[in-house]
Design a protein that fits this description.
three-stranded antiparallel sheet, Triple-stranded beta-helix, 14% helix, mainly beta, four-stranded antiparallel sheet
Length: 166
Amino acid sequence: MTEHIAQPSRINFFHGRLLSAGDLEHEQQQARERQWMHNRLLHGHGVVTGLDVTVAGDRLQVSPGVALDSFGREIVLASTTGLDGSEVVHESHGHVQVVIAWAEEPAGAILGPDGPVPDSYVDRPLLMLADHMLGELPEHGVLLARLHRRDGELLADPSVRRHLHR
């Protein structure tokens, strides 16, 4: 499959040019897309560092780390995050996966011309348990571990992770 590659462009800045919010948004989006294309084409997708899954009882912990999704977006988990694994049953052997996915959310508020608007956006990844067939990957998510139970104990199998080597 051939990668769709958009023709790069940029705004011509000069003294006295009036810039709109749309111009600045376009410039920012172009820079993000160039970075994502670089990541995707030169590095691939998978875990860069960290994001280790540990289990204590029915509680899962994912350590801080970085991954690249299939779009090339950086997924940064800044602090240890917990998940409840109590719903994983013995019969779901290997179908429940720990997945991290890129997401952003608005932060703060500032008064815009038509009322309050987000002051900024923060990349805040989604960490979830996903039920998938063996070998099937969640769309645009990065697989961190596959879960199963042995003698009632919840276990995480990290061997399914795709690692990117630096």
